Amino acid sequence: MKKILVTGGAGFLGSHLCSRLLDEGNEVICLDNYFTGSKRNVLPLLDNPYFELVRHDVTMPYFIEVDEIYNLACPASPIHYQVNPIKTIKTSVMGAINMCGLAKRIKAKILQASTSEVYGDPQIHPQTEDYWGHVNPIGPRSCYDEGKRCAESLMMNYNLQNDVRIKIIRIFNTYGPHMNPLDGRVVSNFVVQALTGKDITVYGDGLQTRSFQYVDDLIEAMIRMMNTPDDFMGPVNVGNPNQFSMLELANEVLDITGSSSKIVHLPAPQDDPEQRQPDISLAKEKLNGWEPKVQLREGLEKTVAYFDSMLQRGELKL
Ligand SMILES: NC(=O)c1ccc[n+]([C@@H]2O[C@H](COP(=O)([O-])OP(=O)(O)OC[C@H]3O[C@@H](n4cnc5c(N)ncnc54)[C@H](O)[C@@H]3O)[C@@H](O)[C@H]2O)c1
């Protein structure tokens, strides 16, 4: 049994990770300040004696003895990370410093949840890990993009300078149950709009494409990455390379929900990348042949079922 710290563990991805780590027989400490996460996401885990929930902000040091740290704490959607951009930078940068400092002191292994946003508005498609990105350092997304880039740099330098065992994964657009319905992310937006009979809002012409990874595929890759040999640190892209346009996604959601919502178009936000697509060759090679297994239709059906049950229980407050 390993003792594992998950920062941001009450969030969308963190809650799935905590649950999977417990299923594998580990002891899990979930640390969160509940900015975008919620106790509701980890409610079913609270009865497990090997699960501990701690309210804490990663911008402050935290001391504990663990074997592994998954550092996920950070708001992930523009709506939330732009509420307080300075705090977003602090969360990424000071969070990484505090968690790497802890890993150094207790000789734990640490995995950083980085993002495809480090590639900015990429000029090559698909993106491979050796692409340095095309980021606007003063744009409205920079608090997130540059914070995450700095966190990657911190990880690498804690390894170089202090031999901390580090792992970096660059997560591409992921969806599934436990997404925050107020996040403004495209999948949760479309699903909630369809379920509540509201117009489906597509930004721009809707022809811009995105890749959509189901959460279970990501969690599998995260755990495999943590278990790779110490000399493999990444960064490694983890995403689903299949591309869908916003209009295709909207129509798929309409089909699953049977909703009569109409599709309407709104202006595209500033710095919204036209396209982002992972090259996952490295993940396949280094993570024991890992590749995404869940098709969009299947993942969307599970996501619709989740939001529908929230709606039935009156928990979907918009
Ligand atoms: N979901 C995606 O598609 C995606 C894509 C790329 C990267 N990521 C990264 O994965 C991680 C998890 O993302 P998510 O989608 O689960 O988002 P999320 O917002 O659901 O989860 C983030 C969690 O971190 C917590 N948090 C935020 N600031 C904190 C702080 N200062 N101290 C302690 N806790 C704090 C939030 O309350 C929340 O529970 C993030 O680091 C995000 O950047 C996610």
TrEMBL record:
Stored InterPro entries: NAD(P)-bd_dom (IPR016040), NAD(P)-bd_dom_sf (IPR036291), UXS-like (IPR044516)
Residue limits of the NAD(P)-binding domain?
5-303
**Superkingdom:** Bacteria
Q: Where in the cell is it found?
A: Cytoplasm; Golgi apparatus, Golgi stack membrane
- What main location does UniProt list? cytoplasm
- For this protein, the Enzyme Commission number is 4.1.1.35
User: Which keywords does the record carry?
Assistant: Cytoplasm, Decarboxylase, Golgi apparatus, Lyase, Membrane, NAD, Signal-anchor, Transmembrane, Transmembrane helix
One GO biological-process annotation of the entry reads:
UDP-D-xylose biosynthetic process
- Which cofactors, by name? NAD(+)
Task: List, in alphabetical order, the Gene Ontology terms for molecular function in this entry.
Answer: NAD+ binding; UDP-glucuronate decarboxylase activity
**KW NAD (keyword) present:** yes
- Kindly list the GO CC terms recorded for this protein: cytoplasm
Biological pathway? Nucleotide-sugar biosynthesis; UDP-alpha-D-xylose biosynthesis; UDP-alpha-D-xylose from UDP-alpha-D-glucuronate: step 1/1
* Bilayer topology annotation: Single-pass type II membrane protein
Q: Which family does it belong to?
A: Belongs to the NAD(P)-dependent epimerase/dehydratase family. UDP-glucuronic acid decarboxylase subfamily.
Please give the name of this protein: UDP-glucuronate decarboxylase
